[in-house]
Amino acid sequence: MRTRRHAMVVHAYYPLAETRVQREAEALVAAGWDVDVLCLRKPGEPAVDHHRGVAIHRLPVSLRKASPPRQLANWVHFGLRAGRHLSRLHRQHPYASVQVHNLPDALVFSALGPRRAGVPVILDLHDLMPEFAAGRFGPDRRLVHHLVRWQERRACAFADHVVTVSDHWRDSLVARGVPPSRCSVVMNLADDRLFRPRPGPPDRPGFHLLYHGTITRRYGLDLAIRAVADLADELPDLHLTILGRGDAVPELQALGDELGVRDRVTIRDELVPAEQLPPIIADADLGVVPYRDDPFTDGLLPTKLMEYAAMGVPCVAAATTAIRRTFAGTLVELFPPGDVDGLAAAIRRLHGDAARRADLTAGCARFNQRHAWPDVAAAYVALVTALADRGQAHGSCNRRSDVVHRGEAAAVVAGDAAGGPDVGARSSGAAS
Predict the structure, then answer these.
(1) pLDDT tens per residue across span 369-390
(2) Is residue 39 located within the same domain as residue 161?
(3) Is residue 429 part of a domain?
């Protein structure tokens, strides 16, 4: 039997920047698929490469910090190149399925060539762009919000199936018109090959907080620095490490200087591969996820919390809707989003209460029992396989993937896989 081929398109670097893409690609490879990933290319990187069995096709487009118009131009440039390259690869070795990852949603139209040939197309929504735009631009940019919602509707209508990262966001998509039978959840669970329970709390002096991921204002890292400053005299052994890349690094460095806590706060402005994260996480007494409350962060399901859970590290986290829904009663001590005093109080409480920290560590185990990447990966592979089977059987570019009914995709929906609605992002490491 000929090996099936699956293509993924992502406006990001691979494999470092997008561990969600990497985990899904490698799950398919492990199931016997050939997988091509079309992605951005850094200067000096080879155009064609391989990593853990995945073929990487890097297009001559790089990621640059830019104004929104230039970002849009970069998206369009990449999408056009990806569309041409994907069609060429499909003519050489036909694909059984194609998966396109946002941002942007409209990148899914790069799969037009294979779709015309009857190949089913999956749109993987890491982030919901209407919420992303609302959090970034505020409520007053009505034209922007109208255009973003329009392109989401068109992209979801073009795709044969839509997957996203949490039940909260799936509910939002269904409310906006995506048929429930064509919308599933693939949670960004930690890779159990890398993230395993640590033997116990760190055996060293000091009390260390850790944040790893994108460093931007909406993620509330200035609040964490202010909380450390508020607690500096009371908790002299307290230290915060912020690991990642983002536009808020200079602002946070200046804030640390202003508050006189640069010796209490380490900002590591670097991307760290997922393989290097476990010992960094294992050395933390608490993880911290200090998100602000905006339309985007309210529905964001942080991969970092999955990784803390996998390693048995308790956390302090903002009580956003998605975090409450997914993690309440397990590994998190919740505080009101955006509340410095609430964050400081939670840190103070856990610093002085080893029994409570042990309870939260036990909550990690409960979370891990309900959510495991091998189960989600198997269901994801089953979903892609079912779509490919239906595409082959129906063989028409006009068919809709509502032939893959809810019952067939149910295992991939995290709430169904875990048995309840309290179960559910960009990527781990320094990406989300």
Answers:
(1) 888 899 999 999 999 999 999 8
(2) yes
(3) no
